[in-house]
Specification:
The structure is a single chain. The chain is α+β, with helices and mostly antiparallel strands and 200 residues long. The protein contains four helices and twelve strands, in the order αβββββαββββαβββα. The protein has a domain of 137 residues: Nucleoside Triphosphate Pyrophosphohydrolase. The strands form two sheets. Strands 1, 2, 3, 4, 5, 6, 7, 8 and 9 form a nine-stranded mixed beta sheet that branches. Strands 10-11-12 form a three-stranded antiparallel beta sheet. The longest helix is centred in the C-terminal third of the chain and has 15 residues.
Length: 200
């Protein structure tokens, strides 16, 4: 079974109608009304040892400067689907052409505390893709082994005070990279679907 076929057996094959979880799992589900729709690509690089590709945002960005994220962004009116949004934004941010991406499925929608309703789309990157980071948005593009992200020993729960409220969230450390918040929660959702990990 190919990597794409294996992923398709574990992932949603239709866009979910409602959000499955939210930022720190502490916001009411009704908060999704009025949230801005967005989509991100969770890019799985097809290697002998598969990896997940991430971007690190430039420090000068107003929103989430310096943070690790998946390529993606706000859905535009002309986007016909979350897949189109994710592929368009991925090309704009990283230079990866849509022709190198084979879609594998969807994860649960994720509602952020900053007012975005994110649809994660999982795609497999074929060998030969080229990187051309958008310098105003992307400081770095890097990969993390999929096996590392699926190992529950490599994730942790942390707590911080946001707006006077203590909230907990997932976090990973890979080399010099800190992956946390919505990006880490999406990874955990992906790992749970792949390996049946139950945990918090």
């Amino acid at each position: 079974m190919s990597l794409v076929e294996g992923l398709r057996t574990r992932l949603l094959q239709q866009v979910p109608d409602v959000t499955g979880h939210d930022d720190y799992d502490m916001l009411p589900r009704t908060a999704q009304f009025g949230a801005a729709r967005a989509a991100v690509l969770l890019p799985v690089v097809a290697r002998a040892e598969p990896a997940v590709l991430f971007t690190r945002r430039t420090d000068t960005l107003v929103r989430h400067g310096g943070q690790v994220s998946f390529p993606g962004g706000r859905c535009e009116p002309h986007d016909i689907s979350p897949v189109e949004t994710a592929l368009r934004e991925t090309f704009e941010e990283t230079g990866i052409a849509p022709s190198f991406v084979t879609m594998a499925g969807y994860l649960d929608r994720y509602l952020t505390g900053t007012g975005f309703d994110i649809q994660p789309v999982v795609g497999v990157l074929a060998d030969g893709f080229a990187l051309a980071p958008e310098p105003r948005e992307v400081a770095e593009i890097f990969e993390v082994p999929l096996a590392f992200l699926c190992d529950p020993a490599n994730r942790r729960r942390e707590s911080r005070v946001f707006g006077g409220v203590t909230r907990s969230f997932y976090a990973f450390t890979f080399r010099e990279h800190e992956i946390w918040g919505a990006t880490a929660a999406i990874i955990v959702n992906f790992a749970q679907r792949l390996d049946g990990i139950s945990g918090a």
